[in-house]
Amino acid sequence: MKRIVRANALEYEFDFRHKPKLHVSEGESFxxxxxxxxxxxxxxxxxxPKIDDFPTRKFTPPKGNPVGGPxxxxxxxxxxxxxxxxxxxxxxxxxxxNIRPGVGPLGDSYKWQSVRGPFVKIIKHEIGPSGTxxxxxGFLNDKISWDLKPMIGxxxxxxxxxxxxxxxxxxxxxxxxxxxxxxEKTKCYLNCYHKGGLLYxxxxxxxxxxxxxxxTADETRSEVTLSCKIIKNKRIPFVRLEKEESxxxxxxxxxxxxxxxxxxxxxxxxxxxxxxxxxxxxxxHMCLNPDFRVNVYQMVRLGNLEYTVGAEIPKKYLRH
Amino acid sequence: MKRIVRANALEYEFDFRHKPKLHVSEGESFxxxxxxxxxxxxxxxxxxPKIDDFPTRKFTPPKGNPVGGPxxxxxxxxxxxxxxxxxxxxxxxxxxxNIRPGVGPLGDSYKWQSVRGPFVKIIKHEIGPSGTxxxxxGFLNDKISWDLKPMIGxxxxxxxxxxxxxxxxxxxxxxxxxxxxxxEKTKCYLNCYHKGGLLYxxxxxxxxxxxxxxxTADETRSEVTLSCKIIKNKRIPFVRLEKEESxxxxxxxxxxxxxxxxxxxxxxxxxxxxxxxxxxxxxxHMCLNPDFRVNVYQMVRLGNLEYTVGAEIPKKYLRH
Lengths: 320, 320
Hints:
Chain A is mainly β. Helices cover 11% and strands 35% of the residues of chain A. The first copy, chain A, has 3 helices and 21 strands. In chain A, helix 2 packs across helix 3.
């Protein structure tokens, strides 16, 4: 299987001028070995006092949130839509989370002084029934663990004319979205603006809660297996996801309520145009359907990063 | 069982000067027959053109969102916390949703003209396996139905010195919160500011999606069975919920991101003070735990109504 090895998965921009690192065919599975969001520097908790030496701080421009790519998908033309199938995400045997002093929603709090940092916490990953970490466990401490839910934080095609940093770039071509539903068996739909699509993937989290509250989740190395389909001549307003049981319309924006409103209206449009739901019925689903959900995936204050929201409806309501 | 009959469940304010309609003991089950949010006027779809005759519009002040109460709970003193156990919610055989022209997130849209209104839609409720509507079905049309999830939209004790309208009043004493988790088997915790607590309940929805997008969900009459416990001398920052499997810290505020942040910080405080979670661990749960959820329950633009959010964590992570 073709792959981008970790040492070559250290791009820090989405840039259409990058030379493709991989050429694949439609339907062909390929692997990206992703580096963690700290560029591989943080392997133990005792680096916390050296927090200003982290690649995310030390360099100008900073080397945070590396991505592997671009991957050139044969047959993709500008104006096509890329369907990315997330086939497998195997994470490393550990991840980290960290806080810099003064940063994050409570970094400047008087009441919550104990969370100010600097701190680095290593989250140990245990393999699960599959014999990999895909269904393993993460350990907060010796008493508390949870089932790992590996997800891709950053996934994008190259933007049309912009060059965006992988850490904060976001648009209808994807970016650093930090969506917990960007997981195995999810299909992710991205607009393409260049020949080959030019796909980038990185910033895998072994686990993340809603909002990614202070901005670094369980950041980890991984091996991501993907394959792509091409939908010719199609544009969507923003990234869409399809899970086994539901569809999700994403939107990244601030303030949060505007992100929510746009995600919902875009979901209505999706239902009307592709599932032949009556406009008024689509509107009523958004207000009445007890299974309609809004997911606040990411609400991190970091540069001009926008908050990412998803409006989700089960597919069972879309079949007539 | 003591009850407030529907004809007496037509208060439109939370007002500590109201004479109690019911006196109950701690632990005693009682019933409130709630009227729907339209004050019982909307029983068929053909009233849509008469939308300005609705009690929510016709009267000054408007007669929208009636509540039953106050219920005086023996033994409650100012400064106590009330635990309200929602034992049963049986809804009527129908509910309604409606839109006034120009109102709601798409009421002024050029693109979505078909949803402008006026429209009234009657949602038929079918009884379920229990022989009641508690687990019944709601019908959007002849092809699409969903399982009803009856919930209490408005629940409050009388505020300390304010008199608040039942339609838009919200505070640490409750109010029109529109939280889909305010359902059977939920325990709701409300601060008490007056002798007897003075509890009001109304605005039951047979179903509601996240955000209650255009502001009227499946509005219905109901019979709500409740009982209360008293927790002496306790104050909480805002309303808390306890479900069977999780705890939820609510917060109502604008903008939405501030509501989310306060709900999360209040959940951390709850975890630290009552479950002996380390402060830093509580913070990390909020960012890393893949089962930590933020629920955008209500995001309706109506007068000075604030948006209601809940931060939720499963109880299994709180046991050592």
